[in-house]
Amino acid sequence: MEKIDIKTFDSILPLKNSPLIHCITNDITIETVANTILYIGGKPIMSGDSREFRSLFQTTDALFLNMGRMSETHEKNLKLASQLAYQTKKPMVVDMVGYGITQQRLDLGNEIINTHPAIIKGNSSEMRRIVGLPTSARGIDRSEQDNQDNTVFELIQALKVVAKHQPETVFVATGPIDIVVKGNQCVRLNNGVSLLDRFVGTGDIVGALMTTLLGAGYDAWTSSLFSLSYLNIAGEQAFSKAKGHGIENFRQTFMNELYVLSSHKDWVNDIRPVPS
Ligand SMILES: Nc1ncnc2c1ncn2[C@@H]1O[C@H](COP(=O)(O)OP(=O)(O)OP(=O)(O)O)[C@@H](O)[C@H]1O
Ligand SMILES: Cc1ncsc1CCO
Ligand SMILES: [Mg+2]
């Protein structure tokens, strides 16, 4: 069964309840992540100091974990925060940046998976490693080979097997086609432009959007489908406005669209699920 209910999407933004989102993320894209949350009506709090996690948890609405830039402290922080989220049932999204490229990222990722995040996301190569499929990707990037028709099909099948054992979690694999799997349900989304891949942090932005929606009270399935569509359609709008003016111009126009689209309702008409 493939289910996508876009009828409800046009009333989601701007958010009415300003959810407070605790982010433990990488310092490469930390400002972009914070601004993304603000642009759609959330409130970011970026804290990587474990001494304050317990008291912060009393006021936050959702938690965003991003493995991005590893350090001993970051690793400890992510472990502690994901345990706390599990114990306190805090809605949590984890971005598995570089899962499996080193032993440290493999072990950390596995520990976090065991704390049952609402959404586990990564690019298609990271998600292939999670389900035990081979990939030739290096570093934190995707490999083009992991986005062909046959490899996308293979990844969906493998994700469904893993999702069966963790039925409450939504698994998201990003790329030119985004894949969203929960239990036996799967949706593929086909929006976006290739320039989204030419600057750093697009995946981190998707994670920030998803966590903000979760914090506002939407379920993990809706939060995932909405965020992927919203980001990619912002990318399409930016492309039509800023094409030919260079990558930095595109990036700024795209960030601006993340704000501008929040008060336009008709963007939902551009959502393009891949027919099953
Ligand atoms: N070539 C593309 N065509 C369409 N959409 C794309 C393309 N590349 C990226 N995107 C969109 O950008 C978002 C991020 O995807 P991507 O797989 O590039 O994340 P990532 O590798 O984690 O990024 P980063 O490491 O820069 O944070 C996805 O929602 C995806 O749809
Ligand atoms: C370039 C880079 N290296 C580790 S994290 C990161 C940003 C990706 O999100
Ligand atoms: Mg990423």
TrEMBL record:
Native organism: Leuconostoc falkenbergense
EC number: 2.7.1.50
InterPro entries tied to this protein: Hyethyz_kinase (IPR000417), Ribokinase-like (IPR029056)
Gene Ontology MF terms: kinase activity
Domain of life: Bacteria
Reactions the enzyme catalyzes: 5-(2-hydroxyethyl)-4-methylthiazole + ATP = 4-methyl-5-(2-phosphooxyethyl)-thiazole + ADP + H(+)
Family in the record: Belongs to the Thz kinase family.
Keywords, alphabetical: ATP-binding, Kinase, Magnesium, Metal-binding, Nucleotide-binding, Thiamine biosynthesis, Transferase
EC class: transferase
Gene3D superfamilies: 3.40.1190.20
Cofactor list: Mg(2+)
Protein's UniProt name: Hydroxyethylthiazole kinase
Function, in words: Catalyzes the phosphorylation of the hydroxyl group of 4-methyl-5-beta-hydroxyethylthiazole (THZ).
Residues the record lists as binding ATP: 121, 174
Keyword set includes Transferase: yes
Residues that hold substrate according to the record: 46, 201
Pathway in which this enzyme or protein is active: Cofactor biosynthesis; thiamine diphosphate biosynthesis; 4-methyl-5-(2-phosphoethyl)-thiazole from 5-(2-hydroxyethyl)-4-methylthiazole: step 1/1
